[in-house]
Amino acid sequence: PRPRAWARPRRKGRRRQFPC
What are phi and psi of 7, to 5 degrees? Predict the structure, then answer.
């Protein structure tokens, strides 16, 4: 399983499955 950061984007404006 991937980390929570990969579950949803930390900030809006990036892709769906990216920690940034």
Answer: -60, -45
**pTM (predicted TM-score):** 0.09
Tokens of 15: 């892709």
CA–centroid distance for 6 within its chain: 4
pLDDT at 1: 63
How far is the C-alpha of 1 from the C-alpha of 12, rounded, in Å? 23
- For residues 3 and 16, give the distance between their C-alpha atoms in angstroms, rounded to a whole number: 14
User: What is the DSSP secondary-structure string of the chain?
Assistant: ---HHHHS-SSTTS-TT---
